[in-house]
Amino acid sequence: MISEPELVGEDGPGSSPDVVSGFDAEQGPAAGRRRWHGALWGLAGALTASAVWAAAVFGYGIGGDGKPDSRGYRVESDSCAAMELEELARVLGKPDSEPATELDGIEHPALHRIRCTVDFKELDLGERRGEDGSGWTMGYQASLTAELHKETDPRPEFEASSTLTEIEGSGVERVERVPDLGDRAYLVIMDDNSMRLNVVEGGAVMKLALSAWMSYNEGDGAEEMPDAPEEPEMLAYQGHLISDMRDVMKALRTG
Q1: Membrane-spanning regions, if any (predicted)?
Q2: Rounded Cα gap, residues 46 and 52, in angstroms
Q3: Number of domains composing the chain
Q4: Residue 109, domain extent
C-alpha cells in the first residue's frame, strides 16, 4: 500500500493542521469542580467537532442536500479546448494537432465527463537516423480527464485513489501532495515513464497525465539494434504539468 503522500512544499495560508485529541482513556474523571471542568471541555470539544464538520461541509461546497458545489466548473463535449498546455509545449514542442476527444465521455444528469489526448512531435534521440532510416525516437502524449459530479461528493473516492499501488496495470512509485491547488491535489509518479496530476475541487475532478515512450525504427538495413537511450526523467516536467493544470482549471471555469 502506498503510504501517506508526502507534501510537496508548504501548505498555503488558511490550511489547518491535523488535530489530535489529548484525551487519556486510562485516567478517570476527577471529583467536584474538576468533574465540571471535564464537562466544559467535553462541551467545547463537541462544539469544536460541530464547527469542524460545518467547515468541512460548507468549505468544500457540500450543501444540506448533500450535492457538491460545481464551483463554476463546466464540463461539456467541447471542453477539450481547455487543454492548451502552453508550458509543456514550450519544452516539448508544439503538438502535432488539436486535442482529440475520446469516445468514453459521459453526459448524464449525475455526471459529466470528457477525456482528451494530444500527441507531441516525435524526437530523434542521439545521432540522426542512419542512411537506412534506422534510429531511436521518443514521443510524449498528454491526456486530460475532467469530471463534474452533480449528485454525490467525489472526494472520498478521490482520496482512496491516492493509496493505489497500481493503476491500469502500471505500478505507482510514489504519491506527493501538491499544495494550493484545488481542494486537494496529488502528483502520482508511475513506473512506466508517466505521471499524472489529480485535483478535486467541489464536484469537479481533473486528471492531467503525461507519458513518454521510446521506439526503434529498424529501417531497411540489417544492422544490430543499438542499446536503448536512457529513459526520460519525467519529474523534470512536473512544474510544467502543474502550471498547465492551473490553466486548464481556469479555462473549465470560464468556458
Answers
A1: 39-62
A2: 10
A3: 1
A4: 79-254
State the average pLDDT for the chain: 76
Rounded distance, CA 50 to CA 55, Å? 8
Whether pLDDT at 49 is above 90: no
In this structure, are residues 201 and 185 in contact, taking their beta carbons and an 8 Å threshold?
A: no
pLDDT at 202: 96
Could you please report the per-residue DSSP string of 119-166? EBPPEE-SSPP-TTS-EEEEEEEEEEEEEEESSS--HHHHHHHTT-SE
Instruction: Show the cell assigned to 100.
Output: 482529440
**Residue 252: its pLDDT value, please?**
97
> Is 64 among the domain residues?
no
On whether residue 129 sits in a domain, the answer given is yes
Separation of alpha carbons 41 and 35, rounded Å: 10
Report d(CA 18, CA 255) in Å as an integer. Answer: 36
